[in-house]
Amino acid sequence: MNRMFKHQDAAPADPIIFETITSEKPGGGLVKNPEFDLKPGLAMGQDASGLYVPIKGYRLVTERKTADTTIKIAKGSGIKKGDVIAHGKVGVACTEVDTTTSDDYDVVTVTMGVAIAQDTVLYQAAEAADGSTKEAAPIHKPEYILGNFMGNLGKAGEGDFEARLIRAASLRKETAPIAQEVVDLMKGITLD
User: Fold this and answer.
1) What is the largest CA-CA distance in the chain?
2) Domain for residue 8, yes or no?
3) For a Cys-Cys bond, which of 134, 154, 161, 162 suits 38, CB 3.0-4.6 Å?
4) Does residue 113 lie within any of the structural domains?
5) 156-185 average pLDDT score
């Protein structure tokens, strides 16, 4: 008997983002139609219309030396030309994004002038800052962490969607797409 069986490997498991969740926004919130596929663990803030929007997190795939003019960041961050990438108090706009070099990372042209360790998560800043006369700050005030969602929700161009918003939680530092600087602005959120 021919059953037409064909073996398929299991889909890769989603990384564990949350260690513990202790508080959520009752009823969640409405997330604005995203420009890129969203992942649980992103910091969320409100835009002028009252919809929740992500604060992008950019995880470094390799260390960054002070004189480097490019960085390699993990795929799926939503990086685009002109985004202001920040670490600590320094924020610099990226001038080019190469998404074709690798399936695992994007090569981003940006001159930050600081050394940064591998696996550090950088954040999306509101505007460029040199760190001395002006300090970088996230593009939106972080209020919640994006929780888990089902199906195609969170996909780019699929429209606004309701999502679980986390107020207090412990996140895994190794997998959460959020920078320590953003976590420091959020009461009840820790990176462990």
Assistant:
1) 76
2) no
3) 154
4) yes
5) 95
Radius of gyration of the chain (CA): 18
Per-residue pLDDT, 124: 98
CA-to-CA dists, residue 102 to 68, 72, 106, angstroms:
19, 10, 7
Is 188 among the domain residues? yes
Distance (Å, rounded) from C-alpha 91 to C-alpha 126?
9
The verdict on 187 and 163 lying in the same domain is: yes
Host domain of residue 115 = 57-138
Cβ burial, residue 157 (10 Å; 0-12/13-18/19+) = exposed
* Of the candidates 51, 49, 60, the residue with the CA atom closest to the CA atom of residue 163: 51
* Strands annotated E in 42-148: 43-46, 52-55, 57-59, 70-74, 84-87, 90-93, 96-98, 105-109, 121-125, 144-146
Element (H, E) at 190: strand 189-191
